[in-house]
Every structure is written in C-alpha cells, then in structure tokens.
Design goal:
The complex is a heterodimer of chains A (221) and B (616). Chain A contains 7 helices and 6 strands; from the N terminus they run H-E-H-H-E-E-H-H-E-H-E-E-H. With 221 residues, chain A is α+β, with helices and mostly antiparallel strands. In chain A, the strands form 2 sheets. In chain A, strands 2-3-1-4 form a 4-stranded antiparallel β-sheet, with helices on both faces. The chains are: A alpha+beta (221), B mainly alpha (616).
C-alpha cells in the first residue's frame, strides 16, 4: 500500500517535471538580477527563496482566478541556472496533467506584478518574466503644466515692471512741466508785493505805501 | 603724406577738439552717459561674450587640433580682433554718435554702412532672441523633478514608449518634438506652436523692460547679466571636475594636434570666430562708446575686453568639455554594461562573472566553446568607443539642448543644474541682445524716420514689437530650419563687408593722420606702429580673405541643411536635404540687401545731388 502511494507520488512529480521544460509552450522564463538591483544588500538565492517565488506565483494565480485553489505544488520550476534564471509552468489544481494557458498566466502575473516584485525587493527590469512586457503607469498629468506657472510668474513680474517704468517716466515729464510753470507764477507774485529790505510792509511799523507796487512790471528796462 | 581720399566738408560735420573739450567741461550735451566705467565695461563684455563662446568655440577648438587651435586663435585675436575693437571704440568716442551718425559725419556717401549695420543688427537680433526664447522654454520646464527630457513618455495605449522617442532618445524627442515640434523639411511650414509663441513674447518683453530707457536701464541690468555667467561657469567647473570622466573630456579638448595648423580652414575658422565673437560691425559698440567721456582710455578698454573675451572662451570650453567628458563616460559605461548583460543572459552565467575589466577574456573563452560563436554573433554586441561619444553633437543648439541636457539628467539634483545652466545661457544671450537693440534704436533716432518727440521708450517698443511679429516665423513647425538659414546668411557675409568698409573709411576717407591726432587728443598719446599697421593693412586684408573664402564656398556649393525626419530610413541620424529653389531668393534678400545698401545709398545720394541739386 505504502509502495503504491510512493509510486503514484513519484509518477506525479515525474509527470510534472516532464510538463516543465525550457521552451515549454505554456511556460515562462524568469530571470532575476539581484546583485544589480541591491548591490551590497543582495541576498543569496536558495531553496527558501525559490519556495517564496512559487508561493507568490500561487498567490497571483489565486487572485486572478478567484475561486481555484492553487498551491505551491501547482507551480513547477525547472532548468535553474547560476544566472538565477529558470522556467516555470503552472499546473491546473483540478487536473495534474494539464497546464494553465499561457495567456492566463500572463494576465495573472500582470495583475499582481507589483506584489511579486515587492516580495523580492526587485523591479520590473530586475525581475524579468521573459515575454511579459512591463505595464506602464498612467502618466500623471497635472492640471496646469509646471512651465506655464513659471511663465506666468515671470511675465507678471516683467509686465508690472514695464508699467511701473512707463508710468514713472510719464510722471517725471509732468513734474518737469508743472515745475516750470510754478516758477513763472512765483515770479509774478513776487513783483506785486511791496518789501522793505525783504520784509513785507504789513509787518513793519508805519504806513504801507502801495503807490509804486505795480511799477516794477512797467518800468523794466 | 599718407594716402587719403578727398573728403570735402569734413570739418563742418564733426565737432572740433575745442568743442569736445567745452562739452566735456560744461556737460552741456544731452547725450546719455554711463553712470560709471564699470557699467560701460560690463556692457561691452556682455555684448562680446555670448552664446558663441559657449557653444561654437569649444567645438572649433576640439575639431581643429585642441590645444594647437590656441595658436591661430590668439594670433588672429591680436591681429584682427583688438585693432577692430579699438577702432570702433575710438571712432564712437570721438564722433559721439551712433553708427549712422558716425559714418554720415565722415562722409555722407557712407551712410549706407550705418544703415547696413542697423539692418544686420535687426535681423540678427530677431533670430538670436528666438534662441533665448528656446532657452526660456527649457528654463520654465526645469522646475520639475524628474526633468521632462529624462525619460520617454508612454504611448497612447500604454503598451510601450512613444516610437519616435524609443528609436532616438528622450532628449532628442523633447527637443525636436515637444519643443520645436519640427516638420520634416523647410517647405512644410506647419502652424504656429502656441507654447513657442508664448516663449517668444516672454523673451521680447524681458528684453524690452531691460532696454526701455536705453543705457539707463541696460546699465543696471548688466550688473547681473554680465557677471552671473561667470559665477555659474565656475560652479559648473567645480561640479564637473568632481564627476567621473570629466578629465577625459578636458584631455580630449586640449590634446594638441599640430598638423591641423597646416590646414587653411583652421586659420579661416579661427579668424571667423574671432570676428563674430567680438560682435563687430553691428554698430552697438560704436553707440556704447559714444556715451563715454571724451578722454576715456579706449585703447586700454579694447585690450582689456579682448583679453576677457579670449579667456572666457577658453574657460567655458574647459567647463563644457568636462561635462561632455562625464556624459561620454556614462554613455560608454552604459554601452559596456549592455554588452555584459547580453552575454550573461545568453550564457546564463552568474552575475558578476563578467565585468568591464574581464569582458575581453571572457569573450575569448566563450568563443572557444562549442555553440559560443553563433550565440555571440546573434547578440549583435555594441562597439563602444569613448572617442565617438566625445565627438557627438557638440556644437550649436545640439550642444546646449541635447548633449548638455542629457548630461544634466545624469547628475544628482538635476533640476538645480538645469536651472543654473539655462539662466547662464539666458544672461549670455540677453547681454548680447542689449548691443543689438542699441545698434537698431540709436541709428533709428539719428535717421529721423520717426517724429522727434517720440521718446526712446516708444522707439524701443516699436523695434521690439516688429521684431517679435517677424520672428513668429521661427515659431512655425519649420522654424528651426529658418533660424539656421538666418544664422548662416544674415549674420555672416554682410558683417564682413561692413567691417571692411569701416576700416577703409576710417583709414583712408577720414584719414589715418586725423584719426591719430584724435586719439592723441583723447588718451594722451598717438597710437603706436602696431595699431597703424593693423588698421591700414593687416586687419582689412584678414577680413577680405575671410570674406572671399566664405563667398566662394557658399556660392559654389549647392546649399543643404539637416532635418529631423522620423519617417526617413536613417532615423535618428539627421537627414541632409537640399534647399528648394525659392530659398535662394530669401538668401539673396538676407545677405544681399544689407551688403548692397552700402553702395546703394551712396548712389542714391549721388543721384539726389545731381538731379535735385539738394545739399547732402
């Protein structure tokens, strides 16, 4: 009895291994570049990491299909190399001999790509699924492009400056004009006043003689 | 008795030495004046030091034998640059007028020289300010992280990057597509690009506010626009020297190749560079000098400014090439890394087994395995050559907007370096524009085309507005091709002709003896034999030779231009196209009209005198 069970298990795993081959039509090649991504903090790739990978991929398949119970054993890996690259196929949980279709695997990976990357502290380019191109995030388009804001600030300052300069030159011109007419008025006023040694006659003792106060205008030589 | 052409009535047209002395003492003239000598020097330095020092000289230096290029450059600086500069400064200071006034005073038949200067200043100013508009666009776009030219945008359905960008590079794409939105040929004009129109408006408005009251406002602006580039260049030098690969770039720049000195085009390029670098024959320098006091030492000024200009060229070449060296090294390392990764992936070897240092041995080992050669051949490994990367696109707008911007994206804190770089280019360009505008507005005032009571503000506004409207041609899709056309023809041949006429006019029509006496009156001693020889013989001959060379090469060659055409076979290499035949009319207008104005106005005045007996 024990023998039969053992035999069946070996048969199952042998079958599974046969399903997984490099270049399998429903399989994908995975390539990890841990040293490139993490440098000094790179971790060793070993059996435990491989287990994590199979578990993560099972999680991705579960998330995609939603009702089928994938297990670590559903993910079959083969042809591991020093590069840290290997092939994997996904065995359907209901039927141990049939594989999940390539497109389904691709969509599942795409859906959970970010989670798979995060589990290994890698990115789309350092954890490559050969054949599955990375998805692009929708570009974040701000409402006003930043350059328009800077443009607005510069133009506002410059236009304010131009207006200020033009206004100040107009004001200066006006001042010059009124300055000239003011001086002329002052002169006429001065001629009407009667002064004794520069002091207006009202402020002195005595009587004001205004008889000749207008003469200056007429007797100029 | 030296050769002097007859010139009756000269004494009546110019102020005598006694008049000048009296004007100086009483400050009776109503001509604007510099607040101090520093303003004058900074304005002249700003006018001379421009974008050409940053993106033309380094390329010429490197392509004509590196350190060896200094020899023809310095020789021609001394024989051609300094004498012409001294001549313009002295004649402006003596006759105290703008370019039209000066040449009309010397002889009314020479008015054409002044008008040609004014026209060339106008045309060159138009396209030069468009380059400043491009610089402002990049400046406005530098206030974001990551910089928009650091990565390709994804395409419409988010399946990949935009194809045009993927096949070329993010910086190329940003320049040709998102900035210029260039068409594939000069006759496909496309429409106005609204963002470019906005930048053009910004550039002309900033220029207007700086020039609004003439030297009263530009004199204040130059404190910043002439000094800031030096500060930024120093910062970039320090930053550049700390980057990997910068020394490679500097070595590449200065490694001398003395064989290049045998090549005549080296000397011709050096002569042309000195000539254009000094912004001679624009009329701006004459105007600026006319605002000086009569006894200002113009000889000393000419020497100082020439030395500053030369040193700035060499300094900026060093800075530019240190950054280019950094970029080339990064590109080279990336190229090698791509090869390494391709090999690792193909042979499934562990990371780190192949590095830059052992790649050649590993290639040999792998080649000797059974299936190795086939696989290696199938990989199409890049050939990585540092020299190729160092010689890539290092002149003109390609340097500033493609190569340098790419280098900036590879530096940490890129937006800061981008902002600094484009502020520097902006200041360099703006200070040159001050001279251009002066070279247009001062003659306009002297020609009395507009009513006398129109103030300087109004005249400057009219000049800026009309230039802006005509410069809208550069905001079309084919705008950059038009700009290259203007650059090649509006600013090259006419300037040489004007400069030649200026020297002949001063030496042989005004009279070298009279000129010597004027200089003795102004600065206290007569110019020595070096100045005499250069003004009368050496400099005119050099200018004449350069002119003949330019004219002959341009007239003989079927003219071509380079275009960005995504649908071409060689993309992303720029396509070389022939100009359509109607362009030759435009070329004739651009180069011919200013040149023909010189004899044209003389003939017109002659005609006026004979037919209408008018006093000219």
């Amino acid at each position: 009895m024990l023998g039969k069970i053992l035999f069946l298990l070996c048969l199952a795993s042998a079958l599974a291994q046969q399903l997984c081959q490099p270049g399998a039509s429903d399989g994908y090649k995975v390539r990890l570049s841990i040293k490139t991504a993490l440098g000094d903090k790179a971790y060793e790739w070993n059996e435990n990491e491989m287990f994590l990978f199979r578990a993560t991929l099972a999680f991705a398949m579960r998330t995609y299909f939603n009702d089928e119970e994938f297990n670590v054993s559903s993910i079959v890996v083969c042809s591991e190399t020093e590069r840290v690259s290997f092939w994997f196929v996904v065995v359907s949980p209901q039927n141990a001999t049939s594989l999940v279709a390539k497109t389904d695997v691709e969509n599942a990976v795409r859906l959970s790509r970010h989670r798979i990357n995060s589990a290994f502290l890698l990115t789309d380019s350092t954890l490559e699924f050969v054949g599955i191109s990375p998805t692009f995030a929708t570009p974040v388009a701000p409402d006003t492009p930043p350059w328009l804001i800077v443009f607005g600030v510069v133009m506002g300052a410059v236009c304010a400056g131009i207006i200020a300069l033009l206004v100040s030159s107009v004001v200066q011109k006006r001042r010059k004009k009124t300055g000239k007419t003011d001086d002329e008025d002052d002169e006429e006023e001065m001629q009407g006043k009667v002064e004794q040694n520069g002091i207006a006659c009202e402020n002195l003792d005595g009587v004001c003689n205004r008889g000749y106060s207008d003469d200056e205008r007429f007797t100029k030589m | 008795m030296r050769l002097v052409l007859p010139n009756p009535g000269l004494e009546d047209r110019i102020l005598s030495h006694q008049d000048l002395e009296r004007l100086e003492k009483e400050e009776a003239g109503d001509r604007p004046k510099w607040d101090n000598k520093a303003q004058y020097l900074l304005t002249c330095v700003g006018f001379c030091v421009g974008l050409g020092n940053v993106w033309r000289f380094p390329y010429l230096c490197q392509s004509h034998g590196g350190g060896a290029f200094m020899i023809p450059f310095l020789i021609l600086l001394v024989l051609e640059g300094i004498p012409l500069l001294h001549l313009e400064f002295a004649i402006g200071q003596r006759l105290r007028k703008g370019s039209v006034g000066v040449w009309t005073s010397i002889n009314p038949y020479l008015t054409g020289v002044g008008i040609a200067s004014m026209l060339v200043s106008f045309l060159v100013g138009m396209y030069y300010n468009t380059i400043i508009a491009w610089v402002m666009w990049y400046f406005f776009n530098s206030f974001q992280d990551p910089l928009p030219w650091s990565q390709c945008p994804p395409n419409a359905n988010l399946t990949g990057l935009v194809s045009e960008c993927k096949r070329s590079s993010p910086v190329d794409y940003f320049w040709y597509r998102e900035t210029l939105n260039t068409s594939a040929a000069i006759d496909e004009s496309g429409g106005l690009q609204w963002w470019m129109v906005l930048c053009l408006i910004a550039a002309w408005t900033v220029l207007y506010i700086c020039c609004i009251r003439g030297i009263e406002t530009t004199g204040k602006a130059v404190y910043i626009t002439s000094t800031l580039p030096y500060v930024v260049l120093t910062i970039f030098l320090i930053r550049g020297l700390t980057l990997k690969g910068s020394v490679e770039g500097i070595k590449f720049l200065f490694t001398p190749d003395l064989d290049e000195l045998m090549n005549p085009s080296t000397w011709l390029d050096a002569g042309a560079q000195v000539f254009y670098s000094f912004s001679l024959a624009f009329g701006g320098l004459i105007s600026f000098s006319s605002y000086n006091s009569v006894h200002n030492n113009c000889e000393q000024d000419a020497v100082i400014i020439s030395i500053i200009n030369g040193c700035t060229s060499v300094f900026s070449a060093t800075v530019i090439y240190s950054i280019i060296g950094f970029r080339a090294t990064e590109r080279f390392d990336d190229c090698n890394n791509e090869n390494v990764i391709a090999l690792l992936n193909a042979f499934d070897l562990a990371e780190g087994t192949i590095t830059d240092s052992n790649i050649d041995e590993m290639l040999q080992t792998l080649n000797s395995t059974a299936s190795g050669p086939e696989i290696i051949h199938g990989l199409n490994l890049n050939t990585c050559n540092l020299r190729t990367f160092l010689s890539e696109g290092v002149e003109g707008t390609g340097l500033a907007f493609i190569v340098f911007t790419e280098a900036i994206t590879k530096m940490p804190v890129s937006p800061l370096w981008s902002i600094l770089f484009f502020i520097m280019l902006f200041c360099l360009g703006l200070s040159t524009m001050f001279g251009s505008i002066e070279g247009v507005v001062a003659p306009l005032q002297e020609l009395k085309i507009f009513p006398q009571n129109w103030t300087k503000e109004v005249l400057t506004g009219i000049v800026c507005l009309s230039s802006l409207l005509i410069a809208l041609i550069f905001a079309l899709k084919s705008g950059s091709y038009w700009l290259a056309l203007f650059d090649s023809f509006a600013g090259s041949i006419p300037l040489l002709i004007i400069a030649f006429c200026e020297m002949i006019a001063v030496a042989y029509i005004y009279g070298i003896d009279r000129f010597n006496e004027d200089i003795e009156f102004m600065i206290g001693h007569k110019p020595n034999i070096f100045w005499q020889a250069s003004w009368r013989v050496v400099s005119p001959s050099i200018v004449f030779v350069i002119f003949v060379f330019y004219f002959v090469t341009k007239v003989n060659a079927r003219l071509m231009y380079i275009a960005w055409d995504p649908s071409s076979v060689n993309f992303p290499v720029l396509e070389t196209l022939f100009y359509p035949s109607w362009i030759y009319v435009i070329i004739f207008l651009l180069a011919g009209i200013p040149s023909l104005l010189v004899p044209g106005v003389a003939l017109y005045k002659l005609f006026q005198k004979w037919c209408c007996k008018k006093a000219i």
